[in-house]
Amino acid sequence: MNDAPLQRTGVVASARHFPVVFATVALLMCASVCGAMNPDAGIPVADASTSVDSLPPSARPAGVPDGYLVTPNGYFHPDCVQRVGSDERVLADGSIAGPAGQRRASPACIHAHFSKAGTAIGPYDRAQVSDIPGQTATADTLPPTINGYTVSATFVVSNAVPKVFAADMLVPTAPSSAGDQTIYLFPGLEDIEDVQTILQPVLAWNGFGDHAWSVASWNCCKDGTTFHSDPLAVSAGETINGVMTGSNCSGDVCTNWAVSSKRGAESTVLNTQSYGQRFDWVFGAALEVYGVQTCEQQPASALVRFTNERLTGMNGTAIALQPWNGAFFDSLFGSGFDARYNIYCAYQLNYGDAGRQIVILWPH
Fold first, then answer.
1. pLDDT tens sequence across 134-154
2. I need a surface site. Which of 10, 116, 234, 348 has the fewest CB within 10 A?
3. Is the four-CA dihedral 118, 59, 74, 186 of positive or negative sign?
4. Euclidean distance between CA atoms 77 and 216, whole angstroms
5. What gap in Å lies between CA 288 and CA 151, rounded to an integer?
6. Phi/psi at 57 (nearest 5 deg)?
7. How far apart are CA 289 and CA 22, in angstroms?
8. CA–CA gap between residue 121 and residue 142 (Å, rounded)
9. d(C-alpha 346, C-alpha 361), whole Å
């Protein structure tokens, strides 16, 4: 951990730099391994996944059906959440190839998913998402609960396109009030000009309904489906190395990407596609939560630390980090970012070590 002095900043990113669909990240089981059924909605619910059913009524946006799963990109039908082994690869057509070349189909997602604000989104229509800065729901439509992004630090690479992006995450302490809330922490990559998916190594609290920390690697949400690797249990105080590495590259586009979440010698990897995207939008740090109603439901340490941020270009040379754009998102209504609505935990962003360290913190 780098203990260099930190500078406090809080630059709000331009609204045009926020995509129609966020990325973001949960550790969820796919429908193919789901056994339990919701008798009312008829939707399979993953036994080990965090379901919207576990959230208290005040933390659940109206309109999200029973049995839907909580993910870092909103609420998804279990058929649209696919688990991929580290020895498998997501192909361009959405099928999943095994180590011996065998393929298994990934069911086409025919169900709407729901934004963090609870707005229905067609599986192929990113333009329907409501979590866009400036499009704010009213207090009558959402409960007073934090759902979705709360803080992020990003920049768009101006002079190159990364082939590798890596960052370390220190696993924080568990929430002092550990209910059914879900917390996501991650770095990530998107294409600022053509947002289709986000690559994310994700550290999650209660990502599998386990009330514990775990990591998995994600790519969401091509054609309404989100893919993730097998989860790996981790503990407070451990360092997680998140790495996104492109291969089979031509020009500014790498066809294949490996998203790795590593703890010591153990890792969980998602081998996936770029879908033609050039990943020039860098998320150095993001905090996203669901079902948080008090500050005590976040990590008791009251801070999360990202270190050793580093970028490598297509030619193998290091890309200099640019100034981070800090954004504090609307915690009350679920969309947009505006310091006026940062009323719950007074989030702050501190930077140090020439931009290689990002700390998200809030008062005790």
1. 223 222 323 334 557 789 999
2. 10
3. positive
4. 19
5. 7
6. -50, -35
7. 13
8. 17
9. 8
Which CATH number applies to 6-361: 2.60.120.200, 2.102.10.10, 3.20.20.210, 3.40.50.2300? 2.60.120.200
Question: And the tokens for 79?
Answer: 């058929």
**3-state SS track over 108-145:** CCCCCEECCCCCEECCCCHHHCCCCCCCCCCCCCCCCC
Kind plus residue range of the DSSP H or E element containing 57: none
pLDDT at 364: 63
Cβ–Cβ under 8 Å, residues 159 and 232: no
DSSP3 helix / strand / coil % (the chain, rounded to 5): 10, 40, 50
Residue 344, pLDDT score = 57
Q: Can you give the pTM of this predicted structure?
A: 0.77
What is the per-residue burial (b if ≥16 Cβ within 10 Å, else e) of 16-50? eebbebbbbbbbbbbbbebeeebeeeebbbbeebb
- CA angle at 10 for the pair 318 and 61, rounded to the nearest 5°: 105
**Cα 173 to Cα 153: distance, rounded to the nearest angstrom:** 22
Ranges 47-56, 194-203, 292-301: which has the least confidence: 47-56
Return d(Cα 311, Cα 318) in angstroms, integer.
6
Asked if residue 17 has pLDDT above 50, the reply is no
The per-residue pLDDT for range 59-80, each reduced to its tens digit, is 788 888 999 998 887 888 998 8
Among 82-91, 246-255, 289-298, 308-317, the minimum mean pLDDT is found in 289-298
Instruction: Give exposure, 214-243, as e/b (b: 16+ Cβ within 10 Å).
Output: bbbbbbbbbebbbbbbbbbebeeeebbbbb
Tokens of 339: 């310091």
User: Where do the structural domains in the chain lie, given as residue ranges?
Assistant: 6-361
Q: Please state, rounded to an integer, the average pLDDT across all residues of the chain.
A: 78
Contact yes or no for 73/22 (Cβ under 8 A): yes
- Buried residues in 97-136 as b, exposed as e (16+ CB within 10 A): beeeeeeeebeebebbbbbbbbbbbebeeeeebbbbbeeb
